[in-house]
Amino acid sequence: MQIKLLFFAQMREAAGAGERTVVVESPITVGECVRGVLAQPEFTKVRDLPFRYAINDEFVGSEQAVEDGSVLAILPPVAGG
Fold it and tell me: Would you put residue 57 in left (φ > 0), alpha (ψ -120 to 50) or beta?
């Protein structure tokens, strides 16, 4: 199945882009998908951050199933000022 990943803050910098479309096996959870993404070499520096996740603009936990065509946002902590 195909899903779109959205990256923000440090994740966006590591990815070199704000989004990426990936093909993954079904069924898959948010946590499984994110672990696969973070295993890629460009994400070495951000692997241990405490992420939040949203599917189609709604916050979800890591055990949430991801459906074909979903948009998964991976949200690292951000600092404000």
Answer: left
Q: What is this structure's pTM?
A: 0.92
* Burial state string for 15-33 with b = 16 or more CB within 10 A and e = fewer than 16: beeeeeeeebeeeeebebb
- Give the residue extent of every domain in the chain: 2-75
Q: Which tens digits make up the pLDDT trace of 45-68? A: 999 999 999 999 999 999 999 999
26-14-40 Cα angle (round to 5):
40
CATH (residue range 2-75): 3.10.20.30
